[in-house]
Amino acid sequence: MKYRVNITVPAEGDLEDAYQWIARDSSQAAERWRKGLYRVIDSLETLPFRYGRAPEASAVDFELRQYVYKSHRILYTVIGDTVHILHIRHGARQLLKTHEIRRPTPQ
After folding, report:
1. Which residues form the domain of 39?
2. Fewer Cβ in 10 A, N or C end of the chain?
3. pLDDT digits (tens, 9 = 90+) for 49-86
4. What is the CATH number of the domain that holds 32?
């Protein structure tokens, strides 16, 4: 089965913030990071359940998974045939608070 991948607005903002942070040192490194991140996100079209639960999963009432890409965590959930990318967060940052994690509405 092939899943659709939906990058939520908060995740898009997270991605842009991280890109800008990396670009402060090197625009080329930032572009490589972003391209690699999109490859990883696109790979979730197949077998999205292969990655484990996020540490924040016990604080929410839905399945929350993560994929670690370089220094960032891609936090996502699967609803029906869609993978929803909820956040992209640097691994050194504190875990998300419950109120920061919202279940996406099915499309």
Report:
1. 4-94
2. N
3. 999 999 888 788 789 999 999 989 999 999 999 999 99
4. 3.30.2310.20
